[in-house]
Each structure stands twice: as structure tokens, then as C-alpha cells.
Write a structure and sequence with these properties.
Length: 328
């Protein structure tokens, strides 16, 4: 195999036929708008170097003076097969070796998560504990999907949400979404993304950018934000008002999102990453048809600043714990 960086514009038409948001023209535009940077595309060619067989999209950016090379949408990426037979011969270690040799970076945070191309996970024996959770639903009949794919408890909770008069609103109102999102992030003790991130995402993805709101008495009490590339739906953010969890607002959001996807020819529903400790979230996603897609993770840290970026949350937690003990 011959591996080298490719010019995205040269292969844009070929790559955009596939259902992978991180390799899409829309995502390239988003990166240019928000980060003022372009994704990197690494191509796998045949031995003679004249036939493109597979592509790995990455993202290269600067942050606080650090050069960062990482996965794309939602911090992970995937190998896109141009040639359907290539999966049997690809070794992820080859990509890692190529990146280390040919790119300058302070931090390499490469998470490869095969959702569409699961054969690569089998070939490379992915056994990472952290995984993305995604559902592949080819059935189009929503009643059959509800009965045969959605778990019994989640079916009952979804019905309860409708009995409590939750209604939906589909659109792209970022101001309304951001209020819910900001509140959810504060509740979790996390730093919210700036509002510009969402406006740029909407601008880049256009008609493939969607926000679904759950309304109670006209008030927005929950929202799912997703982007679409062909037959792939990537749930970017879920936010909800904890006061309304007892009426199953998130069950309502997931089922309405799936129903929308069935009507719009979506096959892959990507619900995002979870660590093993997130047992409740994992169980919830599995009850809506998801299965674990193990992530192959390469982490290379070259500078003190990069160490701090990766481990700052743990450092902050340890500092707070130490302060509490000193006060006692």
C-alpha cells in the first residue's frame, strides 16, 4: 500500500459520494469558517500509486500556540473506503506511523472509530473500552422499528412522553438551542462552546443541519442537534431541562429523531461516544438500537502544554479535592 496526503479538491467528487460527515465538503467549509484551518486527508493508493483506495480524514489546527492533529467530527474519525475490497488489507498502525513521520505536532489525538466500515475494527482487533454508540437501521416502517428495535422500557417511556403532551418543533433556532445547551453544560460542570461554533456549523451544513426541540406548553425543554451526510446522521449535541426528565423528554427526542431519519433515508444513526462508566447513557442508547463501535486511540504528547490540555480536568479535580482536605 502507498500512503500519502491528498489534495481534497482533486478527489472531492469521489469522496463526497459517501456517507461520512467528517469527509464532507460541508465539514471542510465549517473548519475553514470556525477554525480558519482545513482538514487533512490521508489517502491509501495501490502499490503503483495511481488508484485511490481509501481515505482517512483528520483535522489539523492551532490552539494556544500548540499544533494539534486529531480526529474530525465529534473528536473521532473513520477510514472511508473508496475501494470496497481495501478493508481486508488495511492496518491502522500504518496510518499512525505515517502521521508520526510526516507531520509536526505537539499533540496527536487520533481516535479512529469504524461505524460504516466495521471490517477494519475486526481486522485490527479493536478492543478499546471507550466506544461510539450507533444504530444501523435499514427498515423504513416506523411501527416495525418501534416494536422490534426499540427496547420495551424505552417504548413505554416514549409513550409516556406523548401522554404528557410533549410536542416537537424542527428547525435551526440557535438562540433557543443555546439556552438549553448552556444550561446543560453548566449543570455538568463543563465549558460550553461559543455560540459562533453553532452558527458556523449551520452555515456550512445548510439544509443538512437540524435542531429538534421538545416543547411543553410552548416552552423548549429539550433539543437534539444533528448534521447529516447522505445516509449518515451524526447527533452532535443533546440538551435538556432536568426538571422535565420525569416526563421522558430525552426518550421523546431520540424517537422523534429516529422517525425523522426513517423518512429521510438515514441508515446510520451515530449517538456519540461513551466511556464504560457511563452505564446509564450506554443502556439508553442501546435501547434505541445502538451497539458499541470500539475506538482505536493513538495519543502522542510532545510538550508540557499538550500534557496540560489532555489532563487538565483530572488536575482541576485533584486540586479541588486537595483544597477540601486542607480546609477540613
Amino acid at each position: 500500500m502507498n500512503i500519502r496526503q491528498i489534495d481534497y479538491q482533486q478527489y472531492k467528487g469521489e469522496i463526497n459520494r459517501f456517507s461520512l460527515p467528517s469527509a464532507s465538503a460541508e465539514y471542510v467549509e465549517f473548519c475553514e469558517k470556525f477554525w480558519q484551518a482545513r482538514p487533512v486527508f490521508i489517502g491509501v493508493f495501490n502499490d503503483s500509486g495511481n488508484k485511490l483506495k481509501a481515505v482517512l480524514p483528520l483535522f489539523q489546527r492551532q490552539e494556544n500556540g500548540m499544533a494539534i492533529l486529531e480526529g474530525a467530527v465529534k473528536t473521532y474519525t473513520e477510514v472511508l473506503n473508496i475501494d470496497s475490497d481495501t478493508a481486508l488489507n488495511l492496518n491502522i498502525d500504518l496510518f499512525a506511523a505515517f502521521i508520526k513521520k510526516n507531520y509536526k505536532f505537539d499533540l496527536l489525538d487520533l481516535s479512529i472509530c469504524p461505524i460504516i466500515n466495521k471490517e477494519i475494527a475486526k481486522l485490527n482487533n479493536f478492543r478499546a473500552r471507550t466506544a461510539a454508540y450507533a444504530a444501523k437501521i435499514e427498515e423504513r416502517d416506523s411501527e416495525r422499528v418501534f416494536k422490534e428495535i426499540i427496547g420495551k422500557k424505552s417504548r413505554n417511556q416514549t409513550r409516556l412522553a406523548y401522554k404528557n403532551d410533549l410536542t416537537k418543533e424542527l428547525g435551526g433556532d440557535i438562540e433557543k438551542f443555546y439556552l438549553l445547551y448552556q444550561s446543560s453544560m453548566q449543570r455538568l460542570g463543563a465549558v460550553p462552546k461559543e455560540k459562533k461554533y453553532f452558527y458556523d456549523l449551520k452555515s456550512a451544513f445548510g439544509d443538512n443541519f437540524h435542531v429538534l426541540f421538545a416543547l411543553k406548553g410552548g416552552k423548549a425543554v429539550g433539543a437534539n442537534l444533528w448534521v447529516v451526510k447522505n445516509q449518515y446522521l451524526s447527533l452532535m449535541f443533546n440538551a435538556s431541562d432536568k426538571e422535565y426528565w420525569n416526563i421522558c423528554v430525552n426518550n421523546f427526542l431520540y424517537w422523534e429523531m429516529i422517525s425523522w431519519g426513517l423518512k429521510n433515508n438515514i441508515i446510520w444513526f451515530d449517538y456519540g461516544i461513551n466511556a464504560p462508566r457511563d452505564k446509564e447513557q450506554i443502556h439508553f442508547k442501546e435501547s434505541y438500537g445502538a451497539s458499541a463501535c470500539p475506538i482505536c486511540h493513538f495519543l502522542v504528547i510532545k510538550t508540557p502544554g499538550a500534557y496540560f490540555k489532555i489532563y487538565r480536568k483530572k488536575l482541576v479535580f485533584l486540586c479541588k479535592l486537595l483544597i477540601k482536605k486542607v480546609k477540613r
